[in-house]
């Protein structure tokens, strides 16, 4: 007799289409085969998870057709089923899956549109954000040395694409002009997505500001974020970028992870799990860090 | 935390709160005894949680979980339980419920209420998990009977006895989904009247009602608990028998697929109220909502 743990693993494999012999052997047939009984559960798993993906990626659903979406979702669910009972958290890897899905090769922008949709969904459900007040911010920034790790609005995502995914998204909204077209050669976009109040919004950013905010949301130290911003835009203006972060109400806190000897990897972590500290491959230059001024 | 909200005691009949009805309910405040939401839809930040707080100011709420996976051999997901506890702290719900099922194995969440074999091993496991959840929540849980499409070869304890023993061991209440009793008994060739008779009336804290579909699988009729239609006639009959046996209990109309206009749900709720009213007339009780 199998243990409950083994039985649940067997049923789980059957549900994901990875073989139902072991699970079927444990099921009473009684007028309907064990496979048919397990199939009722499998059908529910796939239809509800497909519906969850359709709800998160409606524009992807419009760009392909419903049957193709269901096919792609079916393949994705088999290889990357949910890990969380909150289905709004399911689908983070769906854009990458679409990017590598041979059947999508003809729609090269599809994965990037999916990245934008994931960022929109993530923003909608992100934890509520409280921006650091100006006085607290000034106090925190009075002694910056580049080693700081900023925690920004948790709803913030930065999405870049060589395709005009913002236009593609807009013309595929239900209320959009059905005759609207998108020039796919319109060039790259760098989008910032976040929630403001109850609304999720996105807008384009300059290359330097985009790289700066992107590095900060990835948990890089301030000095490294500045390096990355300067790589993207030689004219990157740090005081202006810091003022904009404050003006946009993006900053939730500043941590100063302790430095381990001889390495750029941060020794401490912020209490915020989103605040991921990455090792920096470059030495920091203290002179890069200006005094905060409004 | 809720301040100035309504009393937490649910009225006799509530409905499942679904997204298409939220605006109308908040604008018109129709007469509804209470509202039930799926816990997992409100565990993120953003507007969903704020809406729930606003609704809670007007109506008693029930948090109905689908993701705790009380029957998982791998143990409860502590992070998930902590999020449920935090939501319950913010919302102060009238009722908190979950299912006698599992939905997680090998770290995968299947988004389905999967059946357990009813064994001593399962009973000990679910008992431990219900106790763990109740300790974390600081309140009793109501545990719902699932709708079933299969049973396991080695499952010696009948489901209602399993639920009764679970309630005795943990002090949890039971949520009797009358439609699930009907669906499971039809699919597994069991007697729904005998099922109700085997449940301990004192443990029943809530009743669910919903529609089901009749599908064909390999030439055999299978009832599917799809919550996509009005409550079926035989299920209303079974509800009358449940109310006669258990007494008046907070009753919920659930509707999850092909969601109709709010009026249809309210109409179903009025039907349930009439059933409760008839029972009260017989018992000489003046007001079940009191």
What this model shows, in words?
The complex is a heterodimer of chains A (294) and B (290). Chain A has helices at 4-15, 21-24, 34-56, 58-63, 66-79, 94-99, 110-125, 134-141, 165-171, 207-217, 222-232, 238-247; strands at residues 149-152, 157-161, 189-196, 199-204, 251-255. Chain A is mainly α and 294 residues long. The longest helix of chain A has 23 residues, at 34-56. The radius of gyration of chain A is 23 Å and the shape is globular. The relative contact order of chain A is 0.10. Residues 261-294 of chain A have low confidence and may be disordered. Chain B is an alpha/beta fold and 290 residues long. Chain B has one domain (13-283): Divalent-metal-dependent TIM barrel enzymes (TIM Barrel, Alpha-Beta Barrel). Chain B has an 8-stranded parallel beta barrel with strand order 1-2-3-4-7-8-9-12, surrounded by 4 helices. In chain B, strands 5-6 form a two-stranded antiparallel sheet. In chain B, strands 10-11 form a two-stranded antiparallel sheet. At the A-B interface, helix 1 and helix 3 of A face helix 2, strand 5, strand 6, helix 4 and strand 11 of B.
Rounded to an integer, what's the Rg of chain B over CA atoms?
18 Å
Strand content of chain A: 5-15%
Distance from first to last alpha carbon of chain A: 71 Å
Query: What percent strand of chain B?
Result: 15-25%
Helical proportion of chain A, percent range:
40-55%
Q: Which word captures the global form of chain B?
A: globular
Q: What is the N-to-C succession of helices and strands of chain B?
A: EHEHEHEEEHEHEHHEEEHEH
CATH architecture of chain B: Alpha-Beta Barrel
Largest sheet of chain A: 3 strands, antiparallel
- Structural class per helix/strand content of chain A? mainly alpha
Strand order of the largest sheet of chain A: 2-3-4
Class of chain B in CATH?
Answer: Alpha Beta
Largest interface, with counts of residues having CB < 8 Å to the other chain, equals: A-B, 49 and 51 residues
Instruction: Give a count of the beta strands of chain B, DSSP E runs of length 2 or more.
Output: 12
CATH topology of chain B: TIM Barrel
Number of alpha- plus pi-helical segments of chain B: 9
What percent of the residues of chain B sit in helical stretches (DSSP H or I)?
A: 25-40%
> How many strands in all of chain A?
5
Our count of domains of chain A comes out at 2
Q: How far apart are the termini of chain B? A: 26 Å
């Amino acid at each position: 007799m199998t243990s409950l743990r083994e039985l649940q693993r067997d049923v789980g494999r059957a549900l994901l289409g990875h073989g139902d012999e072991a699970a079927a052997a444990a099921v009473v047939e009684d007028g309907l085969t064990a496979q048919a009984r397990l199939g009722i559960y499998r059908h529910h798993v796939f239809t509800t998870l497909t519906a969850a993906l359709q709800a998160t990626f409606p524009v992807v659903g419009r760009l392909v057709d419903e049957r193709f979406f269901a096919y792609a979702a079916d393949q994705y669910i088999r290889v990357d089923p949910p890990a969380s009972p909150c289905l709004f958290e399911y689908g983070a890897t769906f854009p990458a899956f679409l990017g590598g899905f041979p059947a999508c090769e003809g729609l090269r922008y599809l994965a990037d549109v999916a990245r934008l949709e994931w960022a929109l969904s993530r923003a909608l459900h992100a934890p509520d954000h409280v921006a650091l007040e100006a006085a607290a911010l000034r106090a925190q920034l009075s002694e910056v040395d580049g080693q700081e790790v900023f925690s920004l609005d948790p709803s913030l995502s930065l999405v870049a694409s060589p395709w005009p995914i913002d236009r593609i998204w807009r013309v595929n909204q239900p209320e959009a002009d059905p005759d609207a077209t998108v020039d796919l050669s319109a060039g790259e976009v760098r989008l910032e997505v976040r929630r403001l109040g109850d609304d999720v919004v996105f807008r384009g950013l300059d290359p330097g500001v985009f790289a700066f905010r992107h590095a900060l949301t990835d948990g890089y130290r301030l000095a490294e974020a500045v390096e990355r911003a300067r790589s993207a835009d030689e004219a990157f203006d740090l005081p202006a970028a810091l003022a904009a972060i404050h003006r946009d109400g993006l900053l939730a806190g500043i941590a100063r992870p302790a430095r381990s000897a001889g390495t750029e990897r941060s020794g401490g972590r912020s209490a915020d799990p989103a605040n991921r500290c990455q090792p920096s491959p470059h030495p920091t230059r203290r002179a890069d860090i200006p005094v905060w001024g409004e | 935390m809720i301040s100035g909200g309504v009393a937490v005691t649910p009225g006799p009949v509530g409905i499942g709160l679904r997204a298409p009805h939220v605006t109308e309910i908040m604008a018109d405040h129709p007469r509804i005894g209470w509202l039930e939401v799926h816990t997992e839809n409100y565990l993120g930040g953003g507007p969903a949680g704020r809406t729930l707080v606003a609704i809670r100011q007007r109506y008693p709420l029930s948090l109905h979980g689908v993701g705790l996976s009380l029957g998982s051999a791998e143990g409860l997901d502590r992070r998930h339980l902590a999020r449920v506890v935090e939501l319950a702290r913010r919302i102060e719900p009238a009722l908190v419920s979950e299912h006698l099922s599992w939905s997680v194995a090998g770290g995968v969440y299947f988004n389905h209420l999967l059946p357990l074999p009813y064994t001593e091993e399962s009973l000990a496991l679910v008992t431990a998990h219900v106790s763990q959840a109740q300790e974390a929540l600081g309140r009793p849980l109501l545990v719902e009977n699932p709708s079933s499409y299969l049973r396991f070869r080695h499952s010696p304890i009948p489901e209602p006895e399993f639920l009764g023993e679970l309630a005795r061991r943990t002090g949890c209440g039971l949520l009797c989904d009358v439609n699930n009793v009907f669906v499971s008994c039809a699919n597994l060739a069991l007697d729904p009247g005998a099922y109700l008779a085997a449940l301990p009336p004192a443990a029943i804290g809530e009743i669910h009602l919903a529609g089901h579909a009749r599908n064909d699988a390999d030439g055999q009729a299978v009832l599917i608990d799809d919550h996509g239609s009005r409550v079926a006639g035989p299920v209303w009959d079974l509800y009358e028998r449940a109310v006669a046996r258990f007494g008046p209990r907070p009753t919920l109309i659930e509707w999850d697929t092909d969601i109709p206009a709010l009026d249809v749900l309210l109409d179903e709720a009025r039907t349930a109220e009439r059933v409760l009213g008839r029972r009260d007339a017989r018992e000489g009780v003046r007001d079940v909502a009191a």
